[in-house]
Structures are given as C-alpha cells and as structure tokens.
Amino acid sequence: MIIKEYKALFVHVPKTAGQSIEDFFLSSLGHNRKEHGASYLLRPKTKFEEGPKRLAHLTINQYVDYSYITEKAFGTYFTFAIVRNPWDRIISFYKYRGFANLVSFEKFVISYLPLYIKNEHWFFRPQADFIFNEQNELRIDYMGRFEKLEFALSVIASKINIDFKELPRSNSSKTESILSSKSVHLLRKHPEVLFQINRKDSKNKISYRDYYSKKSKAIIDNIYKRDIDLLEYTF
C-alpha cells in the first residue's frame, strides 16, 4: 500500500492484520476500500502488471523492481510492516482457508500446506521474504509485531503525524460452520476432504501451541526457518 499523502509505504504480509491496517489508513483520509482502494494498490494485478495476484502483497523489493515506486521516492518514504509468530500465523492460514472446519491441523500441515506454498507462494511465502533482501538485511524502516499491534500502530502513526486511537478489525480468521461457503468451496476444490473430515482441532484450543504435535512443529520449523531466525520468534 503506497500512501502518498503520508509519504508512507505499508508492506502487507498476509495474515498479520493487514486489511485492518489498510482500512485504518483509508479511513484516516476519509476514504473506503470499495471506492478508493485501487488507488492505493489494494486490487488484483492486471495481465500487464508484474507482481503477486493481489498487489497489496508486493514485497518491499518488488515495489521498486516492478516500478510501483521510484528508487528516489522510495528513499523518502517511511516504510513499515507487521510480522507475526510463524507458528501462530499458520493457524490463521488453517482457519482462513476453511480447513479448520474439516480436517485436523496435522493433516493440513502435512498434506495441504506444501501444495498451497507451491501454488500460491505469493501468499504463503515466509514473512522475511517481504521485508528482507537476499543478504538478510532489513529493508524497511519499522517492523512492528502482531503480538503488540496497538503499540506498533501508535509508533507508525506518530512517525507520519496522524492520530491513532484504535484499529478496526477486518478479515480476521475464525473457525466457521462446516456448511459455510468457505467450507463448501474447499470441498469442491479438494473433494477427497469429504472422506477425511476430522473436526477435533476446531474446538478446545486456547493457544496456538495446542494445535501442534512434534511432527507438525518440525515441519513448520523447517519451512519457515528464515522467519524464525530473522524475526527472532520462539515457539
């Protein structure tokens, strides 16, 4: 999200409250997503453009490499992102895509997550890919944490001289009914799930840690090792 009015650039890492943050900045300008979002790159890319399927999820390097902002302007903008505990973030993916209604978390991690990483890498890729370069150097001015979101937004707001009181919540992940539209869509895409239904992981979970076995944790440790190392998270 390029916010020219504030000379700010928000790198939206998927499943880190990004839509809520985008809506906050749009609202601060008297705008809304439906009418004005496209002007801030909150839209799908066209066939003539480079980048991810949805331009809101451009990496910091892609903004410049694909000429969404000039190198000169980039150097004058305040750049920021929010990151999240990698193990917790995967739980959010699990719920967001509707798997929590139908299959166990371990089944999701073993059988489906690798497929989605391959086919939708732009969405499921490590968070570090969005804000670090290949030399593992942080390329943004401020990296806030999802776990301290209100504090992070207060810091960001102070940097660009706007008021911050509270953050609207948009697009949050939750476990829905087994007959929800999201679940029906998932069953159409993966009909084999119908024979694997196991909803035991959709209830009685308090912490993200409650979802993990040694096996599923080891898989996430390996896939998102760069996040664990560079973002300095522990299980």
From TrEMBL:
GO cellular component: membrane
SUPFAM superfamilies: P-loop containing nucleoside triphosphate hydrolases
Pfam family, one: Sulfotransfer_2
InterPro entries, alphabetized: P-loop_NTPase (IPR027417), Sulfotransferase (IPR005331)
Superkingdom, natural source: Bacteria
A molecular-function term among this protein's GO annotations: sulfotransferase activity
Protein name according to UniProt: Sulfotransferase family protein
Organism from which the protein derives: Cochleicola gelatinilyticus
